[in-house]
Specification:
3-stranded antiparallel β-sheet
Length: 347
Amino acid sequence: MKEKVESIKNELSEDLKEVKNIQDVQNLKVKYLGKKGLVTDLTSNMKDLSIEEKKEVGRLSNELKGLVTETLTNLENKINNEELEKKLKNEKIDISLPSTKVSCGAPNILEKLIEEVEELAISMGYDVVEGPEVEKDLYNFELLNLPKGHPARDAQDTFYTDGDTLLLRSQTSPVQIRTMLENTEKTPIRIICPGKTYRRDDDDATHSHQFSQIEGLLVDKDISLANLKATFDVIAKKLFGEDRETRFRPSYYPFTEPSVEMDISCFNCGGKGCNICKGTGWITVGGAGIVHHNVLDNCGYDSEKWTGFAFGFGAERLAMLKYGITDIRTFYTNDLRVTNNFDRKDV
């Protein structure tokens, strides 16, 4: 056995003298360590040996295998390093040349804005909740204090799919209704519900039959307009800058009482008056109010004990104001040049 081992060592030494590249090393690995290699063949008749002979053969073959493996691995590393150094010397890159910009694409403008609001809301303790776009009239109107025949329905005329019971939602408020109904324990709620909505509007520069909303709902005890105003302040300053001022104006919504329009100071003129704010110094960005007691009662909350506020923004309107977009149809065209200003590389 020892003679065989010494013979293999001598043969390996002679073979190493002929190695010129990585492929030669791989061939030697197969010759010595492969399934039918010289080292492997040493243990091929182990079953015919005695226990003492097996121990001796196993020891010698393992030592030889370790020696061959280490020798070939070191040789392989040496050749690889030499080839790498050769490439580094021969291949030169002129790092002074200007780089070529690679178009990485950009997020959808609306998704970018909605995600920004979601991240802010989550940091304030809100949950993000979604619901079906094909909705029941019950959730879209009736439980929101808009019974059949209510004149306020005209402003939210939408597309019906099954008589007058099934429709494309005209607002994301049904998500609020579903959340309150599903909360059987009637505990506090703090959610925002972004999503697509549909109304029978004429398509022009400021209107579309499909648009996105971002609505919010907070239900708890002892909630007032002051809590709503503080929340609106945080959102407005996050989206439009720390120097933005906010105000409420009285308004009307069937599902809130009292109801308000939410305004921010004009970011173009600083409140002095310009064509963007129509000379008023203020820009309306959404509607809000204290949740109507009928809505709370409809959803199983005792309006004598519970109160809350709700607010809603049009995502397209926020994006148009934030990014200076003048035509709402820009969001729905397939002209990739629109996204050029938002092209960036994530790192």
